[in-house]
Amino acid sequence: MASHVVVTDSTFKRAQIKVTPGKYMTEVLEEACKKLGRNSTNYGLKNNSKQIDLSQTFRLTGLSAGAKLELVVTSRSPSVVSVALQLPESLAAGVPGGRLVDKVPSDTTLWLVLRKFETVGGTNLNITGRGIAQTESGASGAGRIYYETPVLNLAGREVSTFTDLQKTLGQFGVSGGSILLRLTFRKTDTPLEEAMAEIQQYFKTSDEPAEQPAPSSSTESAPAPAPEVESVTEAVSKIAAPSSDAPESSSTKSVTPTKRSAPEDESKSSGPRPMTVFAAPSGDTPKAALQPHNDMDYEPTVQHAKQHQEVLKTHTMNKRLPSYAEQQKQEEEKAARLAKINEVIIQVRFPDQTRVENRYTATDTSLTLYNSIAAVLRVDQPFKLVSFQFGKPLAIPKDEKKLLIRDIGLDGRVLLNFLWEDGVSEEVRKGKCLKAEYIQEAKELPVPVVQTIEEPASQSLDKGKGKETDKKENGGEKKNKMMSKILAGLSKK
């Protein structure tokens, strides 16, 4: 049964929209904005000052026929949406619960959401560039590859066309909270190479940054779909019998990463790096504690008190949490700052209090760091490196893909603690860590000399003035108390 609603904008223009019980409110918004000459991405709907959930159908909103709706301007800053992608059985193997979860801004298109989930959590899935081989009836061989399009079920609404996948989550009424997307695939009659060319036209803007890697990736390498056509075709042409899973298995085999093996082999073959070795302290008392000091350095000054008051005042003030856009900006600024750093000085402290120091460049990975430390160890036992520069213990991962500066965020001078793994024996833990030749070359750790900062004369004068004013105030109080007693006695008489 069809009915209608009336949408009114801020200038009191009216638009009558026909609705059915199963019509989504996003469609009502789009039709109203089209009639009123507005952009639907910047507006929402309200009924009696209550925001309407645009992701629901007209039946679920509780609106009556002929309801009057207001067209209101929504916030331009995107909100964060927690998106869960339910994978089909063909992709769910190896994924806990068969579901991937990530947070994206509400102005992200569904296509970009799928592209993001292809590599989220270290996975390497093929969602947007799938092909399926099919032969003609009675024919033998690999056949031709046809495109298999992703189909999303969003709150009971099916989204499968390239036009709908270009829409953002906000255009489907998802402006916050969480949403579940159910993913399936549907075979099309479009050859894979034609579909890839069409994808390039639809999603040229979103795929331009992803087309920079080498074009030799296969179907499972999702970031650059257009150059994958040749590799997918070659992979499927080797399959004897047509199968829907055959292109995936062949492409998976062709994605073996060989480029990242160079740093590991190079670091192992090059041997130990030239390092600066510092010997363990000879006594129990730290050398810094034996240095002469001035007791006045521990006396707080007026400036210290003012700074402490400022800190207390700052911590008691309410602060607004950064928005998603501000967080993105901070991450971009941090990435730009780390990109300008060419080297970092890393000092590793061992359990026997010996230390080694070395410089690492921007191209060195955490695996390079681990290999360089393993090369100077006396025994070959598992260990880990822990950093405390972020306020809490942070284990440095042993990964050939993570760069020390850009990915882990090490910069300047960094001190890492060397810890043995749990399975290492007590004899190894209590013994020397470094090889004999490195212990012989070790030198004493220099102790920095801190110069005493003299207090300005103005602050010392302020202290003297403060004492004098206190004396005057105390004397004045005593005189006032004596006068009050005398006056009280006269009044009684």
UniProtKB/TrEMBL annotation:
Spell out the PROSITE patterns in the cross-references.
Answer: UBX
SUPFAM superfamilies xref list: Ubiquitin-like
Q: Which domain of life does the protein's organism represent?
A: Eukaryota
Give me the stretches of Low complexity compositional bias. Answer: 211-254
Residues annotated as region Disordered?
Answer: 205-295, 453-493
Instruction: Extract the CDD domains matched here.
Output: Ubl_ASPSCR1_like, UBX, UBX1_UBXN9
| Alphabetized InterPro entries for the sequence | TUG-UBL1, Ubiquitin-like_domsf, UBX1_UBXN9, UBX_dom
> Residue limits of the UBX domain?
339-418
| Entry's Gene Ontology cellular component terms | cytoplasm; nucleus; vesicle membrane
Please list the GO biological process terms of this entry.
Answer: intracellular protein transport
Coiled-coil ranges (or none)? none
Q: What ranges does the record list as Basic and acidic residues composition bias?
A: 462-480
Q: Which Gene3D superfamilies match?
A: Phosphatidylinositol 3-kinase Catalytic Subunit, Chain A, domain 1
Cross-referenced PANTHER family:
TETHER CONTAINING UBX DOMAIN FOR GLUT4
Its protein name is UBX domain-containing protein
Q: Which organism is it from?
A: Coleophoma cylindrospora
Organism phylogeny: Eukaryota, Fungi, Dikarya, Ascomycota, Pezizomycotina
